[in-house]
Amino acid sequence: MKTKHVIPFIFLFILLGFLGHELFYAKPHEIPSALIGSDMPSFQLTNIMQPEKKFTNDDLQGHISLVNVWATWCPACAAEEALLLEIKAKYRVRIYGIDYKDKPEDIKQWLSQHQNPYDMIGADINGDVAIDLGIYGTPETFVVNKDGKIVYRHVGMLDQAAWDETIHPLINQLESENT
Amino acid sequence: MRWLLILMTLCFTSVYALDASQFSSATDEQRFFNLTKEIRCVVCQNQSIADSNAPLANDLRNKVQQMVIANKSDTEIKEYLVQRYGEFILMKPRLNENTLLLWFFPILAIIMAGFVLYQNRKNIRRSD
To answer: B111: distance to nearest CA of chain A, Å?
Structure first.
C-alpha cells in the first residue's frame, strides 16, 4: 500500500479525534471568561452591612480578593458557605459578595441566620452587575488582584479541590509577586 | 383536533411578552427583535435569547432593549456582550483570526477533495 493512500485515513482519524474530544471530554458549560486580565467592571451597589456606604469596584483596590456572586435562594451557594468561612478565617483572604437578584430584606434575614463570610455584600437587585461580569449562573467566584483586575474565574460551586489546586496557589503566587 | 390546534398555537407563541411602546420607532423595535435572534442564551446554549425563557435570557433581553433605546448601534451592543461573555454569545460567530478555520474549513475541504478526485482520475487515465 502506497503512503499517499494512507494520508486520507490519517486525516479522517484526526477529524474523528476532534469529534471524540468534543463529544466526550469537552465541557460546553465552562465558557472561558472574556474578562480575565481586564479591570473589574465599575459598579455601585447598595452595601447591605453598611447601608450608609456604597459597595463599589474601588473597594477592591489595593489587596487581593475573592468576589463571590451568590444568592440566598441558591442551594449551591449554601453548599460553598463553609469553605468561604474557612478561607476567611484560615487564609485571611478578603471575600466580597455580590448578591444576585435578592431582596435586601432576604439578605438581612440570611445574615441573621448564618455566619457571614463576606467583608461586604452588595445587592445586585436587578442583575445588571451580573451581566457586566458575564455571569450565567450562581455561584461564580472571581479572583481579583490588588490592581482591581480579574485574574481568574471559577464557575459553579467552590470546592476544596478548586481551592487547594487552583485558587489558593494562584493567591500565593499573586502575593509573592507583590512582595 | 381542537386541543391539537391550541397546543400548536401555544408552541409557536413567543415565550415572552414585550412592551413595544418603549421603542421610539418601528426600526428600533425590529432591530431589537433581530438582535435577540442573534444572541445566544448561554444557559440553554442551543437557543437564542428570543426563544428562551431562562431568567438570564430575560435579563439579556432587557439589557439589549435598554441599549437599543439608548441608541447604541448593533455593533456596539454585540461588542458589549462579546467583551463579557466571549464570542460564543453570538449565534453566528464573527469572522476574525480565531474563527478563520471555522469559516473556511468547509471550502478548504471541498478544494482538497476536488484535488484528490482530479489526481485519481488523472492516474486512472494514465493507467488506461
So the answer is: 14
A133 close contact with B: CB closer than 8 A: yes
Best of B47, B59, B96 to mutate (most A CBs within 10 Å, chain A): B59
CB contact under 8 A, A136 and B56: yes
Q: Residue B123 phi/psi, 5° resolution?
A: -65, -40
Q: Which amino acid is at A65?
A: S
Q: Do B43 and A127 count as a contact with CB atoms less than 8 A apart?
A: no
Q: What grid cell was written down for B76? A: 456596539
Task: List the pLDDT tens digit at each of the 128 positions of chain B.
Answer: 566 655 555 444 444 555 556 788 888 899 999 999 999 988 777 889 988 888 888 889 999 999 999 999 999 999 999 988 888 889 988 888 878 888 898 999 899 889 989 988 888 887 77
Pair A75, A135: CB distance under 8 Å = no
